[in-house]
């Protein structure tokens, strides 16, 4: 029976799985987005999100705990210096999984996993929205342009007034 056995083993031994997840987490931290299979992405999400939460508190102990999981000092430095500053006010949900279809060779479900705050396209959509414009015909636009010019007379310079007087 498999009661309470929810962990996905990914067809690997424990040491291989831990090393693979640590390498994937380092790549995610360095590149902010990686492409992988859906099963590995879900396992990576469970692996990396507690580390990012731990990185919010920049103490020696939290650095040691994160380093013991990642084993890459450049990834740990990037996590504590850049990523933790950017996600400081976020209460969780630091990663996003977006499915991209199936792989050609073996038809495996593929996706990319990314850090939420580093996707500029998603951030721009929330921050700036285009002003809605009404559709007008060319005739209506041509009539509207002279009406604006006639409504606002241009103040003439004194030299232009003297030329008109002569």
Characterise this structure.
Residues 129-139 have a biased composition (Basic residues). The chain is α+β, with helices and mostly antiparallel strands and 166 residues long. It has a domain at 33-126: Alpha-Beta Complex (50s Ribosomal Protein L17, Chain: A). It is 55% helix and 12% strand. The protein has 7 helices and 3 strands; from the N terminus they run αβαααββααα. It has helices at residues 14-31, 38-55, 60-70, 73-86, 120-127, 138-151, 158-165, and strands at 33-37, 95-102, 109-115. Strands 1-3-2 form a 3-stranded antiparallel β-sheet. Strand 2 (95-102) and strand 3 form a beta hairpin. The radius of gyration is 29 Å and the shape is elongated. The chain starts with 13 loop residues before the first helix and ends with a helix. The model has no long low-confidence stretch (mean pLDDT 86).
